[in-house]
């Protein structure tokens, strides 16, 4: 499935969160990751993220899409890291 | 259609970008907005954003989904602004 992960993490923990997300997904913009990932692998990422985050303070939203039909990605301004998962 | 908008905007311009996006979409997390919006209204938002941004430096990604079937939204940690567009 295709996922978009966005996080809002305290500065003290953000480097670890970034490193963890980059192991599984592609960084596309400040605090935003995208990619195709299986349910099982995503569960593993979530478990590992939960170990480095403070769940009472940090926030992660994961948008999961079983398919990307009828969907599109539009860039305004510069593209920090060109990807094409949604094509 | 359902959209997720994420931006990475220079501090000098981010207040204006935030204000503009909030007129059309719901703020859900730092630099992240969601909502249901028509193609025409989204075009208007984009035109207005282009006036406040520096397109050679700032970056906006807009994910557009004609429907949210087979999709899901998962929160890890706290939810900064509870919304339910994807239900």
UniProtKB/TrEMBL annotation, chains A, B:
Needed co-factor(s): Mg(2+)
Record key words, sorted: Antiviral defense, Endonuclease, Hydrolase, Magnesium, Metal-binding, Nuclease
Domain of life the protein comes from: Bacteria
Pfam families: CRISPR_Cas2
EC number(s) per entry: 3.1.-.-
MF term (GO), any: hydrolase activity
Keyword Magnesium part of the UniProt annotation: yes
Gene3D superfamilies membership: 3.30.70.240
GO terms, biological process: defense response to virus; maintenance of CRISPR repeat elements
Entry keyword Hydrolase: yes
Binding positions (Mg(2+)): 8
Family of this protein: Belongs to the CRISPR-associated endoribonuclease Cas2 protein family.
HAMAP family xrefs: Cas2
Function field: CRISPR (clustered regularly interspaced short palindromic repeat), is an adaptive immune system that provides protection against mobile genetic elements (viruses, transposable elements and conjugative plasmids). CRISPR clusters contain sequences complementary to antecedent mobile elements and target invading nucleic acids. CRISPR clusters are transcribed and processed into CRISPR RNA (crRNA). Functions as a ssRNA-specific endoribonuclease. Involved in the integration of spacer DNA into the CRISPR cassette.
PANTHER family for this protein: CRISPR-ASSOCIATED ENDORIBONUCLEASE CAS2
Subunit structure and binding partners: Homodimer, forms a heterotetramer with a Cas1 homodimer.
Protein's name according to its UniProt entry: CRISPR-associated endoribonuclease Cas2
Organism of derivation: Caldicellulosiruptor kronotskyensis (strain DSM 18902 / VKM B-2412 / 2002)
């Amino acid at each position: 499935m295709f996922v978009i992960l966005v996080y809002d993490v305290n500065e003290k923990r953000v480097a670890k969160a970034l490193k963890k997300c980059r192991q599984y997904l592609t960084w596309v913009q400040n605090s935003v990751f995208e990619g195709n990932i299986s349910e099982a692998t995503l569960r593993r990422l979530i478990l590992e993220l939960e170990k480095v985050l403070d769940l009472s303070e940090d926030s992660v939203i994961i948008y999961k899409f079983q398919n990307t039909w009828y969907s599109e990605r539009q860039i305004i301004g510069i593209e920090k890291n060109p990807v094409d998962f949604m094509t």
